[in-house]
Write a structure and sequence with these properties.
Elements (H helix, E strand, L loop, with lengths): L4 H15 L2 H9 L11 E7 L3 H12 L3 E9 L3 H7 L5 E5 L6 H15 L7 E6 L2 H4 L9 H14 L3 H11 L6 H5 L5 E6 L24 E6 L1 H12 L4 E3 L4 E4 H17 L6 E9 L11 H12 L5 E7 L9 E7 L2 H8 L3 H6 L3 H8 L2 E3 L9 E7 L9
Parallel strand pairs: 1-2, 1-4, 2-3, 4-5, 5-6, 7-9, 8-9
Antiparallel strand pairs: 9-13, 10-11, 10-13, 11-12
Helix pairs in contact: 1-10, 2-3, 11-12
Length: 395
């Protein structure tokens, strides 16, 4: 049965995330690990981040150890899936994101203990993905958790680039900046990193728990970077003609909106332009005190809906981790008639944007995409499609 256009865009988004899923990427990478990791009597798994559970599943599928032990720190939305797919010998803990809480503190301390207590004969595999900076944390000696959390909050609200944010976090946390790897001592170890940092800097993912500098202390496999997400979307979109942005966008979300809007205008005026524009992005969003609820992708979607009213476009803006900020949504899908629908429903888009209150507006418009556990985390994905307005379902 043929899908209508909105369903087709959502389907493309979901297929892209499946293609870049943590389990598949880890399974392929594990084949490149040296002999001690394959068929080991016992394997120590230590993981933190939004995709730790799927990375663990893929690694275990490939390495087939007789038994495994260790600890994974996950976000709460992944816990049920992790319990259903991973061995009971592997401990699971939940932390908080995007702000650490007492669960994050307990998980960080437990992860350090699990690292130090690993048996000398067990090869250790550390699994790192984005979100780990908040999910698992422990203050360095002399710093209180309250002070660490206050600094995290200030950094998050400031809108500084993620690399700068993680550079500050490394100095404050007892896991980050290579400190977790140092706790392993001389044990045989390797690391797999699913990189959500636009520059590809592995030392910034989750604060770099395995890297104090550019030289890794042991085998260190990069599974994928944000630009790979956009390229995967193009592959999944075939045979549709696509244009992929050459670089992952960084900068203010308002600047990203301008860039995407220009692409939409070019597609309106150029009949030969590719039908789909794809960009991976890690935009910054300065969140003022007293802001409402909403993530950067829903904020971007409303900016596009307002700026491109009446134009023949659809835009899906969503997080690859299946969640847009601290909301119940993965992102939003808007089109050239969204602004008109908002007026008809009494929704003030300009006010929602000004108050950083995009989540309620997107939900009321029926534009919000429900959050889900995607099993991966490679920054945000924007899919802009040129579509005749008459094909837009206005119901």
């Amino acid at each position: 049965m043929a899908h209508d256009v909105p369903d087709a865009l959502i389907s493309l988004y979901r297929r892209t995330l499946e293609a870049m899923g943590g389990a598949a990427l880890a399974r392929a990478a594990a084949a490149r690990l040296p002999a001690p990791f394959h068929g080991a009597a016992s394997l120590r798994l230590l993981g933190l981040g939004k995709a730790a559970h799927t990375l663990a599943r893929g690694a275990l599928d490939a390495l087939t150890p007789s038994s495994c032990s260790g600890l994974l720190v996950l976000q709460e939305s992944a816990l049920e899936r992790a319990h259903a797919t991973l061995p009971s010998t592997l401990a699971l803990m939940v932390g908080s994101h995007p702000m650490p809480d007492e669960r994050s503190l307990a998980a960080g301390r437990a992860l350090l203990r699990a690292t130090r207590e690993s048996a000398p004969e067990e090869p250790a595999l550390i699994l790192v993905s984005g979100g780990g900076s908040s999910l698992a944390t422990a203050p360095v000696e002399g710093l209180t958790f309250e002070a660490l959390r206050a600094t995290f909050e200030a950094l998050l609200q400031s809108g500084v680039p993620i690399e700068e944010m993680n550079a500050a976090r490394k100095r404050l946390c007892a896991l980050k900046g290579g400190k977790l790897a140092a706790a392993l001592g001389s044990k045989r170890a390797a690391a797999m990193v699913l990189c959500d940092i636009p520059s590809g800097d592995l030392a910034s993912v989750a604060g770099g728990p395995t890297l104090a500098g550019p030289t890794p202390p042991f085998d260190h496999l990069c599974l994928a970077t944000p630009i790979d997400l956009a390229r995967a979307a193009a592959r999944e979109a075939a045979p549709m003609e696509t244009e992929v942005a050459a670089r992952t966008f960084t900068g203010r979300v308002e600047e990203l909106a301008e860039r995407v809007a220009k692409a939409a205008l070019r597609r309106r005026d150029d009949a030969d332009a590719p039908g789909l524009f794809i960009i991976s992005a890690e935009p910054t969003l300065h969140i003022p005190q007293g802001a409402g609820r909403g993530g950067r992708m829903q904020h971007l979607a409303l900016l596009l809906a307002e700026r491109l009213e009446g134009l023949p476009f659809r835009a899906l803006c969503a997080g690859s981790d299946g969640r847009d900020g601290d909301t119940a949504h993965a992102g939003a899908l808007v089109d050239g008639r969204t602004a008109a629908r908002a007026r008809a429903l009494g929704i003030n888009l300009r006010q929602a944007i000004a108050r950083f209150d995009s989540a309620p507006a997107c939900a009321a418009l029926g534009a919000a995409l429900p959050a889900f556990d995607s099993g991966t985390n490679l920054c945000d994905l924007i899919l802009l499609e040129r579509t005749p307005l008459e094909r837009i379902d206005d119901t």
